[in-house]
Amino acid sequence: MQVPLLRLQCGKIGQQSAAAKYAAASASADFSIEADRPYAELWMGTHPSLPSKDLETQRTLLDLVQDNQALIGSEITQRYGSKLPFLFKVLSIKKALSIQAHPNKKLAEELHAKDPRNYPDDNHKPEMTIAITPFEGLCGFRPLGEILHFLNTVKPLRTLVGNQAANDFEQIVKGSEDSQDPAVVEKNKDALRAIFTSLMQSPQESIEAAAKELVAEAENSPSTFAVSPDSETNPANASDLAELVVRLNGQFPNDIGLFVLFFLNYVKLAPGEAMFLKADDIHAYISGDIIECMASSDNVVRAGFTPKFKDVATLTQMLTYSYAPIDEQKMEPAEYPYATLNMAAWTSGSSVVLYDPPIEEFSVLKTDLNQPGAKATFEAIPGPSIVICTRGRGKITVGPKTEEVREGYVFFVGAGAECIIENTGSGEGEEEEEVFTTFKAFCELESHELPNGH
Ligand SMILES: [Zn+2]
Prior knowledge:
It comes from Rasamsonia emersonii (strain ATCC 16479 / CBS 393.64 / IMI 116815). Belongs to the mannose-6-phosphate isomerase type 1 family. Its cofactor is Zn(2+). It catalyses: D-mannose 6-phosphate = D-fructose 6-phosphate. By secondary structure, the chain is of the alpha+beta class. Among the domains are: 138-331, Orthogonal Bundle (Phosphomannose Isomerase, domain 2); 334-442, Jelly Rolls. The chain has helices spanning 18-26, 61-67, 74-80, 105-114, 144-153, 155-161, 163-173, 182-200, 204-220, 238-251, 257-260, 312-318, 343-347, and strands at residues 5-9, 11-13, 39-44, 53-54, 86-93, 100-101, 127-131, 135-141, 264-269, 274-277, 283-295, 301-302, 330-331, 334-335, 339-341, 351-355, 363-369, 375-378, 385-391, 394-398, 401-405, 410-413, 419-423, 436-442. The strands form four sheets. Strands 2, 3, 5, 7, 8, 9, 10, 11 and 13 form a nine-stranded antiparallel sheet that branches. An eight-stranded antiparallel sheet has the order 4-1-22-19-24-17-16-14. A five-stranded antiparallel sheet has the order 15-18-23-20-21. Strand 16 and strand 17 form a beta hairpin. The longest helix is centred in the middle third of the chain and has 19 residues, at 182-200. Zinc ion (ZN) binds next to loops.
């Protein structure tokens, strides 16, 4: 039987950036370069829009796993069919990506049936983001106190929303911003839906007039954006927020997104930090290089910062309207007990950490092997994995097969196979700089028994 370790060639979109650099090591010859795109994506998986190929045979991974279901494992095949349940990506963002949300399963089916051109999948798309370089984005609605604060202090925002709508909103939520009472929370969400929907429906000429005023204020009197004295409004100081307004307006002049900014949490992730987005959570990525993992789907409902198809009506209807501080959306990585480190790995402080979102399609492991000779052995799991190297040099071994690994190399590891990853170093430079970093996305339906019977 064939050893279940394949080096993959992956499709990519766009140029320049970490994703493009990795793609140069992994991309197929026939990918289409769209150099004018402000971002780049490397896709790793079996999604039909950009399926990965086995480098050696040039067969698509989709074709290979359909031919040999043991590569995916019987449990996964039964649940998801003969394809990967997840799509793994590297995404490099130079310019803000559209304000968007991804539909839940039921809505995805409806949208796909109605409009298959704009909604190519009938699947939901929860997604997880792990920063490789410093990342910034917008994610979820701000706590209501912050939104009220901006409605009262940022005049062009209040003008655009309308005095009446702003007053109505304030009347309902003032005093109950932080209430946990489910009935009150529902009432507040309805108020948020009403004011956000009316904002999103603003006519373009009103947006333009308000945007000009907003940008002038940001340039001339950034203190207009002073943060609320009683909450940690992000970004934490007025000049950062003013800078963001000016920068985003440079990318998307007079866009409704400039005002959406005051409704959404502004989040920064340091390398290694992660966040998880449920279906129907609103978000927009602003800058940085990230690893993304998502249920295998390409459905996006967009409504700002985009030249693409916008669907404001669907977006404003579908959103969860959950409002919370950003910390609640960030994920803490956990220790992963099913990888064994050798002595060189232990003594160099190497680590394997698990990002485990509350869905079953995927989890991701980040492995840092801090010096040459450091090695991690991953127990066999009953599902498939994809491994990408983002830094350093090493090798990967499955059974009798060993392959060299460099930055940007991507591998598929079949179900049921033990996998060993080792730092081999470059033979140049200081040893302490020779960290070897890989990310491994995987799916297993029955999670391992936790040790000690927990
Ligand atoms: Zn997204």
